[in-house]
Structures are given as structure tokens and as C-alpha cells.
């Protein structure tokens, strides 16, 4: 089997807990196991302080015609310019561009970056040697946008964030015997966390001994985060816990504490936390939108348009009905077993072999 070329990755930014950053780390580890030299480069201004040292800065990247470069694309950034100017063979990795209407009124800079990314998508794809999508849903969106024949390389699932020893301080802090409803993900408008908060207000009428734990960075969209805090206050909800970013040990603790994981997101290209929760044997409820059904693949519980009271009742049934709960968990174990048997290295090797000169 021929040796792989050098394969580098370019990102708009880099942060621990971020899905694209996690994907890049997983790919880098896989490529290195396969014998390829591989580095991750990100815009220095968008590398989180806690993640410095885990990647290199974009200004350091210099590809050669013998190399391959992957550009993870979801928002406009200087990484796109570096990608297009690279001498290496180019692969555009499409992670989905969030519709701008979710961020309108919350972050005008993000709106402009998303608009630019959408406007430049076809040109960037046309100047690439290959286009990969991280889900079939994303590939279908590319087709509608005039980018045909994208190959699908599903988002990697690694257990780095769920295989750690649980943080004992978090376990102690949440030791009270309450029913814990968990969400892990960016506190961003497309996640529609307000729908979950409103549903929790109804759920507390069913089960007053309950708690909503929201794990995700407050820095993603500060205005939106402030709105969520205000909403919880207006509803007089004392058991809504905004936990911000979690370390791997912290994440393991939150999953151990959870009785149910709920996602109300209205736009997802895939959504890895759903799989993290399944891996930890936490029943999952998620809105049936975008790439979410693909990620769950028949597991867990999908819902469509429910009002807050109906959503609260669904949560109650999954938490309290032991037969239903076990049925949900069996479906999730089956899904995770299929993921464990995926040969991602062979998929990646086959895709790289399609590039010119590889």
C-alpha cells in the first residue's frame, strides 16, 4: 500500500469542545497513525487561549504540490484565502453554513461572515480538487447550491471527551437527588435553547425536583446568552444551571449526572453531542431537523413541532416510563455499536486515493 502524502488542515478557528476542532484533531490522529505527516493550522486571532499549543497558526502554513490540504468550511475566514492560494492539492470539507437569520440581531459580524461564506461557496468548491461533506444532509445542500458530486465522509466520533474520569467537584456540586435534563453544545441562536428553557418551566410543574444543566460556551454569541439568562429569570427558574465550557473530565461528569439529553436545535449539519450522550447511555430527545436524524439513525427519540407543554410531557415520559426508557437505550446501543464498527481509516484512504497524483 502506497505511503500517504502530507495532509494538513486549515480552520477558521480552534477551541477545545468545538465540533470542527474536535474533527480536525481526530483526523490528525488518524492520518498520523496511517503514516502521514499532518498539522492543524488556524487563524491566530481565533485560537482559544486554552487551545494554544494544540494547533499552529495560519501564517505558518506553507504547502507544496506534493501535499494535500483540507479546509474545514462553515464560515468566512482568512483560512479560505490561505486554502485557495496553497500549492497543495485541495479538499474542501463542508460542515454546513448556518442560515443568517438565526444570528440577525445577535451578532452582525457573524451574519456578514456567514453571508460571505455562502456567496463564495461555489467558487471555493470549483477551485478545489475534491469536496467532502460531513453528512449526507450537507452533501444534499451542496447539490442544491450548485456544487455536485460531493463525497460524504461522516463526522468522526471519538471518545476523548467521554472516556475520562468524571470531575469529582462537579459530581459533588450536583449531588442533590434531582432529575437532571442536560444539553451540551454552543449557546448559539440556531440551538434554540430558549425552547428548552420554556419546556423546562412546564416540566417543573410535573416534577419540581428537577434541574436543567446547559453546558456550552457563553462567549459564542454573548447577546444570545444574555437573553437566555434573562428568560430563565423572567420565568423564575432557579434550577437552570449555565455551566459554560467543560473540560473532558467535566463533560464525563455531566453525562454521568444526566437522566435525559435534550436538543431543541433548529439547524444542525450533524450534531456530535447526540452521539456522546448515547455513548454514555443517556436517553436522547432531539428535534428532527437537518442532519440530526442522520446522526441518530433510528436511535433515541425524534420530535417535530411540539409546544413547551408537549415537550415537557415527552421529557417526562422518557424519564419516568421504564419500558420506554429501556427501548430508547437499546436503540442507542445498537447505533453506537454500528459506529464502533466503522472503518473510518479505510474510508479516508479511499477518498485521498481519488485525488490527482495520490
Note down, in words, how this protein is organized:
It is built from 13 helices and 13 strands. It is α/β, with parallel strands linked by helices and 358 residues long. It folds into 2 domains: 7-154 and 342-353, Rossmann fold; 168-340, Glycogen Phosphorylase B (Rossmann fold, 3-Layer(aba) Sandwich), CATH 3.40.50.2000. The strands form 2 sheets. It has a 7-stranded parallel sheet with strand order 3-2-1-4-5-6-7, with helices on both faces. The protein has a 6-stranded parallel sheet with strand order 10-9-8-11-12-13, sandwiched between helices.
| Distance between the amino and carboxyl termini | 12 Å
CATH class of the largest domain: Alpha Beta
Helix content: 40-55%
Strand order of the largest sheet: 3-2-1-4-5-6-7
Q: What's the CATH H-level homologous superfamily of the largest domain? A: Glycogen Phosphorylase B
Q: Roughly what fraction of the amino acids lie in strands?
A: 15-25%
Name the helix and strand elements from N-terminus to C-terminus, one letter apiece.
EHEEEHEHEHEHEHEHEHEHEHEHHH
CATH architecture of the largest domain: 3-Layer(aba) Sandwich
Total number of helical segments? Answer: 13
Poorly predicted runs are none
Helical/strand content category: alpha/beta
Amino acid at each position: 500500500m502506497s505511503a500517504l502524502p502530507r495532509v494538513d488542515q486549515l480552520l477558521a478557528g480552534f477551541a477545545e469542545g468545538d465540533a470542527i476542532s474536535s474533527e480536525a484533531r481526530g483526523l490528525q490522529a488518524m492520518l498520523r497513525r496511517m503514516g502521514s505527516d499532518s498539522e492543524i493550522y488556524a487563524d491566530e486571532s481565533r485560537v482559544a487561549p486554552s487551545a494554544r499549543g494544540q494547533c499552529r497558526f495560519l501564517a505558518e502554513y506553507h504547502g507544496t504540490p506534493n501535499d494535500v490540504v483540507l479546509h474545514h468550511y462553515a464560515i468566512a475566514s482568512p483560512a479560505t484565502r490561505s486554502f485557495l492560494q496553497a500549492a497543495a492539492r485541495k479538499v474542501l470539507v463542508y460542515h454546513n453554513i448556518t442560515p443568517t437569520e438565526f444570528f440577525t440581531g445577535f451578532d452582525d459580524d457573524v451574519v456578514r461572515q456567514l453571508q460571505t461564506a455562502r456567496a463564495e461557496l461555489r467558487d471555493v468548491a470549483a477551485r478545489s480538487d475534491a469536496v467532502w461533506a460531513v453528512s449526507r444532509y450537507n452533501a444534499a445542500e451542496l447539490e442544491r447550491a450548485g456544487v455536485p458530486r460531493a463525497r460524504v465522509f461522516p463526522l468522526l466520533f471519538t471518545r476523548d471527551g467521554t472516556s475520562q474520569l468524571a470531575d469529582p467537584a462537579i459530581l459533588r456540586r450536583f449531588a442533590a437527588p434531582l432529575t437532571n435534563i442536560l444539553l451540551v453544545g454552543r449557546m448559539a441562536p440556531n440551538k434554540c435553547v430558549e425552547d428548552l428553557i420554556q419546556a423546562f418551566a412546564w416540566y417543573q410543574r410535573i416534577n419540581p425536583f428537577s434541574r436543567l444543566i446547559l453546558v456550552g460556551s457563553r462567549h459564542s454569541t454573548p447577546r444570545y446568552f444574555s437573553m437566555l439568562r434573562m428568560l430563565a429569570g423572567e420565568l423564575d427558574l432557579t434550577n437552570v444551571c449555565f455551566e459554560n465550557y467543560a473540560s473532558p473530565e467535566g463533560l464525563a461528569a455531566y453525562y454521568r449526572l444526566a437522566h435525559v439529553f435534550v436538543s431543541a436545535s433548529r439547524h444542525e449539519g450533524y450534531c456530535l453531542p447526540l452521539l456522546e450522550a448515547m455513548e454514555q447511555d443517556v436517553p436522547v430527545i432531539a428535534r428532527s431537523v437537518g442532519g440530526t436524524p442522520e446522526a441518530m439513525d433510528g436511535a433515541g427519540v425524534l420530535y417535530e413541532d411540539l409546544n413547551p407543554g408537549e415537550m415537557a410531557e415527552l421529557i417526562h415520559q422518557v424519564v419516568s416510563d421504564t419500558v420506554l426508557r429501556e427501548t430508547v437505550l437499546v436503540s442507542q446501543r445498537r447505533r453506537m455499536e454500528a459506529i464502533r464498527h466503522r472503518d473510518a481509516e479505510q474510508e479516508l484512504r479511499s477518498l485521498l486515493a481519488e485525488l490527482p497524483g495520490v
